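Run log, item B.
One chain of 391 residues. Sequence copied directly from the ordering sheet:
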Amino acid sequence: MSRAIRRICFLTGNRADYGHLYWVMREVYDDPSVHFQLVVTGAHLCSAWGYTVRAIEEDGFRIDARVEMQLSGDSGIATAKSIGLGIIGLADAFDRLAPDLLVLLGDRYEILAAAQAAMTLKIPIGHIHGGEVTTGAIDELIRHAVTKMSHLHFVAAAPYGHRILQLGENPSTVFNFGAPGLDHLKRSLIDERELVLSALNIPKHLKIFVVSYHPTTLASKAPADSAKELVNALKQFDGIMIVFTSVNSDPGNASVRGVINKFASEHRCSVRIFDSLGQARYLGLLKIADVIIGNSSSGLIEAPALNLPSVNIGERQSGRIRAASVIDCGDDQLSIVNAITRALSPGFRSQIPVENSQYGLGDASSKIGHVLKSFPLSNLLVKNFFTYQIY
């Protein structure tokens, strides 16, 4: 009797995790020996965040389920209720699709909802980007919780794999292949300089600041206050074009968005805001930018792979591995100004190593895809706690 085709289901909740998942999804979607499934939820389905489900459709992926879960409020209670709605909707979707394996990436609250639904339905989970530390955000707690609900673990660097072993996971299920989002640098057609400048209406003679800033969900300081420090710092620089990528849907996003929108309205000639640029254009922008500023993981993963200086503000990414191109600073105006000034100095950029990435070489997706398609699933659900030996 022939073996049933393995059903591998991917879930994506926002533009960021989709960018990282894209080439892993391709590895499964293009392979007729397995059955690809896709569930779309979260900010993808919201007009306030660019209704980015359209980008998924334009890429040619078939969507098997759309699960609405995103409430309009940006408070903690709205997020908690969104998780609850997500569990209900995703439970129905997973029950109907009956996947043999669910693939999740990262640490967003949409991922937590999916993991909880899959856990109770006895669906094994393959988790990408586990073991990382970001002590300034609730993502930290979600990430480790999802690790304990997962069965295959794909980490982006060796220290993250060690942390997953500390959580008692089976060493045979932990794989260090690097960050799959970096595969775009080798496999995607990244927009060239002239196309980026034209599409974003950026004059050729200006320096380019890319700003990707989100609420720090565990900080005592109000998100809007930190955002004001950032925009006040940006006002200290002349002859620049500032390109903001949209704020994510974390609690506090509305107040941060309000500060940025006000700043943009007062500086229309030198500020651009985009809900979603798409991976090819975003990476094309990073290739020609002078610095990336904010508190997004992109400043620690993608930017270093392009040797672009990063100014990492505050505690949101505290604990993640840093490349030599990353400058950490406080979330006050003076610290941000000093960090940007240092990032722009010729001496700093000249000291960035050619091999600067701490998250692999851009060849993770095929390796992850191979494990997803071939790893035995029959004994994954019952997990023993393995004691990690520190030598």
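Observations after the first pass:
- The chain has two domains: 6-177+363-374, 187-350.
- The longest strand covers residues 34-41.
Flagged for discussion on Thursday.
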